[in-house]
Structures are given as C-alpha cells and as structure tokens.
Amino acid sequence: MFERPDSGEKAILVHMDVSDEAFREDLNEFKELAVSAGAEIVATVTSSRKTPESRYFVGTGKAQEIKELVSEHAAQLVLFNHALTPSQERNVEKLVECRVLDRTGLILDIFAQRARSFEGKLQVELAQLKHMMTRLIRGWTHLERQKGGIGLRGPGETQLETDRRLLGMRVKQINKRLEKVRKQREQGRQSRRKAEIPTVSLVGYTNAGKSTLFNRLADDHVYVQDQLFATLDPTLRKVEIASDIKLILADTVGFIRHLPHDLVNAFQSTLQETSEAQLLLHVIDASDENRIQNIEEVESVLQQIGANDIDLIQVMNKIDLCGAEPRADYHDNGNVKRIWLSAMSGEGLELLEQALAAYFREEMVTTEIRLIPAQARIRALLFELGVVRNEIVDDQGCFHLDVCIARRDLDQLAQREHLAINDLLV
Question: 159 in helix, strand or coil?
C-alpha cells in the first residue's frame, strides 16, 4: 500500500458529469470534502460522459490529462468524486504513478481523522478494513506468489491470502468489541427509559449547523467548525427546556449524499441513538441552494436505519444568511412542522424551545388519590415524582393525596402496580 503524508498533500480533483441523476455528484461539495481532509487542491479535471469508461472511469484522453497534471504539479494524490471499482483504482494508479482515492475512500479518511472516542475509532477502522478487503490486491500483486524460503516452500497460502485472513480476523475482533459497546449503550438507554427522560436527536446533512444548535440548547461547548463532518462521535446532554420539561439532547454525525453502506453499517450503534429517539430535529441549512436534495438524502438514511417513522420537526437553520424571518410553520392538525431560526445568532430559538415544550408537555391530571396503609409504596413513588401538592391522613390511617400528575406517569404507575387507574382515583 502507499504511505500517507500527514498533511499538505497536493491533490488533483476529478469530477465527471454523468447523465444518470442517481450517480451525479456536486463538485463544490467534493471540494469541501477534499479541503476537510487536509488536501491542497492544485487542479481540477472535469468531463462529461453518458456512462463511465470501464478502464479508467474517465476517457483515455482525460486519463492522460490527469497524468500530465500530476507530473506538472508534482501532485501526490488524485481524488475522484465518484465510487471507483478496485480495477479502475489500480489502472489509474498505474498510469499516473501516484495514489488514487475515490469518494468513499476520501470520506473514510476524514472519519479516521475526526474519530475521538474508542467506539468511533473502532467503527472507522471496521469500515476502512471492509473497504480495504476489496482493494487488497492494489499495490500487492508481487505478493500473489507462494511464500518462499526454508520451511515455507510447497503448497500453502499466498502472502495475499494471509493478508486477507489477517484482515478477516481483525474485523471479527472489532465486531466483538463493538458488540460490548452496543450493550453498554443499551444499558444507558434503558436507564434513561426507566428515568422516563425523553431523547431528542439532532439529525441533518453535514455542516448544517447541528452542533451550533446543540450548544445553544444545551449551553455547552461542543466542537464547532465550518467543515464537513466536524462532529463524528455522538454527544448527549441533559437539557431543561422548561421547569417541567427535561430531555436528553443528542448531537450525531452528519449525513452526506451517497454515504457509503459500510459506514452506515459500521456506525449502527451510534445511529441507534437516532433510531430510538422520541423526536428528531432535522436541522437544514436554509441558505444552501441544494437543500431539497440534502433533505431527501437525510430522509433516505433515516429510512436505512429504521428511524423514518419517528416524529420529526424540521429546523431551517442559518436564516441570517438567506434573509428569512424567524417563524413557525404548522401541519393541518396544529402540530409544529418547521421552525425557522439562526443557531449562530439565537434568532427564533425561543420558537423551537416552545415547540419542544408543547410536544413533551403532556395532559396534566389534577385529582385526589386515596391509599390504604398497605399501599405506602405507591405513596413513596408519588412523592418521588414530586407530584404531591398536599396530604391528609384520616382516622383509619389512609392517605388522601392531592396530586397534579402527567397522564403518562399516572398510566405507568397504575400499570407497574397492576391496578386500574380508577382504583387510584377518589
């Protein structure tokens, strides 16, 4: 394989317009990806074809042009804004005599740079290994022969087969470690469910402003940068939206067009925070001219991870960049559909907080509950919930509690104690 310099890599970008909309990529976004990875863009090659060429992906003439640009600029890297087959990568590398990376490899490289947590690093390594296994022959063709030397001659596996086996063993090890992490995360989710604290997950296209909004709502200082995939590891904070509304806010990795399937699978445990949330806030860059396509891409990923049925509020962020005013849009049933705000300036933030409070503020029941002495456990639970406003004990030792309790808490209490709600109410 090729040794990677730490930084300052001179890169040639290759972008091709294809007629199939499903495979079309955005050149400006590709440039942002390259810069985010630390590349120094020295030239950009663009072309247009109905279908990619099987040998070099681009035509022979363009491939030769790329070779000349690599030589002219002393470039160390050629980046393709498309997914290349292993043979195409190998053919282009042989022609231009420098390292070639496709869109998937570039995204994996950015993820490898940004991973900070133990789980994040494992997930990135897993995705990289799966991607590498299909390209192992690249740069290793001299190892296809049988091992030689004393004690190694004769039938047996080639060096290439050994490498594949070792990669497979490493993938199994990582999967075992990730399984432990998943169990730990599940324990955390169960604890939150027992504490009856709802989770709100921020989702959206990369660089839409999720972390800035997270910092505003949680009064935190999560890393924020105007670059793609600034946030990779999920961050969870307890937030008090109102005096009676507490929730867990989760900041997650941003999505991107044609997100590699290996990445979606590798980050399943992280994305599970999204798939098990009670509410999603879909943060959208209102100033981005490609926002419609970005929304569709996020919805596609949400469907992949099984989160497309969760209630969702769209947050149109960065209104300060497009001249829009803070406002709330509503569905026909009166529920909030969309909030327009600026996480950077704070404009419209109160509209979002009001929408969250209205969503989670449940129907409150004000009533009197009568408990016999044997039901002192229920009395303790009510005091633990902080819903008792007054208490009187009668001559028989029964407790008469004046309570103001959320309907959901009352239902759960009755279910836990195997009682009908009417058995509790006076």
Answer: helix
Question: Do residues 78 and 96 make contact, with C-beta atoms less than 8 angstroms apart?
Answer: yes
Residues in Cβ contact with 157 at an 8 Å cutoff, skipping those fewer than 6 apart: 147, 165
Rounded to an integer, what distance in angstroms lies between the CA atom of residue 317 and that of residue 357? 19
Question: Residues 275-278: contacts with CB within 8 Å, 24+ apart?
Answer: 275/305, 275/306, 275/307, 275/310, 276/189, 276/199, 277/199, 277/200, 277/201, 277/250, 277/307, 277/310, 278/198, 278/199, 278/200, 278/310, 278/311, 278/360
Return all residues near 310 (Cβ < 8 A) that are at least 6 apart.
275, 277, 278, 279, 280, 302
Q: What angle do CA 256, 180, 114 make, to 5 degrees?
A: 35
Residue 302's CB: how many other CB atoms inside 10 A?
Answer: 21
Is the full-model pTM beyond 0.70? no
Show the beta-strand stretches assigned E in 243-278. Answer: 245-251
Instruction: Quote the CA–CA distance of 113 and 4 in Å, as a whole number.
Output: 13
Query: How many Cβ atoms sit within 10 Å of the Cβ of residue 366?
Result: 10
Collapsing DSSP to helix, strand or coil, 218 comes out as helix
How far apart CA 249 and CA 234 sit, in angstroms, is 10
Q: Which amino acid would we find at residue 58?
A: V
Q: At what angle do helices 349-360 and 210-218 cross, to 10 degrees?
A: 70
pLDDT in tens, the chain (426 residues): 444 444 458 888 988 887 666 566 778 888 888 888 888 888 888 888 788 888 888 888 998 998 999 999 888 889 988 888 888 888 888 898 888 888 888 888 877 777 766 777 777 777 778 777 766 654 444 444 444 445 444 455 566 667 777 777 888 888 888 778 777 767 766 665 655 677 888 888 888 888 888 888 887 665 555 445 545 556 778 888 877 677 888 887 777 776 666 666 666 656 776 777 888 899 999 888 888 888 888 888 888 777 888 888 999 999 988 888 889 898 887 788 899 999 888 889 999 988 888 888 765 678 888 888 888 888 988 888 788 889 999 988 899 999 888 776 787 788 777 777 676 666
Total number of residues shown for the chain:
426
d(CA 280, CA 314): 8
Asked if 114 and 229 touch (Cβ cutoff 8 Å), the reply is yes
- Please give the backbone phi and psi of residue 76, each rounded to the nearest 5 degrees, phi first: -105, -5
Amino acid 282 reads: H
